[in-house]
Amino acid sequence: PDAGPQRDRVVTEAEWLRRWETSNIGFHKEQGHPLLQKYLDVLLNGRSGLRIFFPLCGKAVEMKWLADLGHSVVGVEVSGQALKEFFAEHSLPYREEPVPEISGAKKLQSTSGNISLYCCSIYDLSSSIVGKFDGVWDRGALVAVNPCDRQRYASLMITLMEKNSSYLLVTVLYDPNKHKGPPFYVPESEIKSLFG
Ligand code: SAH
User: In the structure, what pLDDT confidence band is assigned to residue 150 with cuts at 50, 70 and 90?
Assistant: First the structure.
């Protein structure tokens, strides 16, 4: 299908915050994503103690899974409510601190130190702030990015990846004439041109 009909659609930050406020979060999966279980070996590739990035993380329970496996998890999310719900729902104590490099941003870090969630826009991040990652779990992230921002998003993600990192990307296939998204339809050809 042609992705054309969704090309100019924009979902604002305020709209995302409102979705969290009104619990309009049908994208959240209480049970975690079966595809992460299925492809966990691909993500880890025999390695342990990885740094794993969750772009546009929401309160994805997979962050807890990976932390429990001994990895260090970093996420970014505009909704502070989402991040607080994440820690509360897993009974994880955390502390909150400002991020000196990003005005208005906060970092919520589990007391145990292995889960750090940035409350800001992903476009405010850079590798000098968050470092680079050995693995990425991109579910509800590229497909949630406004179509006009995809190039910027992908270029940023590439700068956040270590040389031998693995990137698991979940997309959805449907007729973009029938739904306005998000999740947006991202054609395979576009994924190739974005990430090479
Ligand atoms: N990946 C999560 C959430 C998917 S929904 C999951 O699998 O459940 C997309 C999320 O991205 C929403 O929680 C929204 O608040 C957040 N978001 C949207 N634009 C963002 C941006 N520019 N920077 C950071 N987070 C953003």
Answer: very high
pLDDT at 196 (0 to 100): 87
Residues with CB under 6 A from ligand 1: 16, 27-28, 56-58, 60, 76-79, 82, 121-123, 139-141, 144
**Nearest residue to 142 via CA among 132, 152, 133:** 152
User: Distance, CA 83 to ligand 1 centroid (Å)?
Assistant: 11
| Contact partners, residue 43, CB within 8 Å, separation at least 6 | 36, 52, 135, 137, 166, 168
Answer yes or no: is pLDDT of 78 > 60: yes
The answer to whether the annotation marks 65 as part of a ligand binding site is no
Question: What are the DSSP calls for 46-62, one per residue?
Answer: T--S-EEEETT-TT-TH
Per-residue pLDDT of 85-139, as tens digits, reads: 999 999 999 999 999 999 999 999 999 999 999 999 999 999 999 999 999 999 9
* Interatomic CA distance for residues 137 and 167, integer angstroms: 6
Q: Kindly list the structural domains of the chain, giving each domain's residue range(s) and its CATH number in brackets, ordered by start.
A: 4-195 (3.40.50.150)
Annotated ligand binding at 101? The verdict is no
Other Cβ atoms within 10 Å of 88 Cβ, number: 11
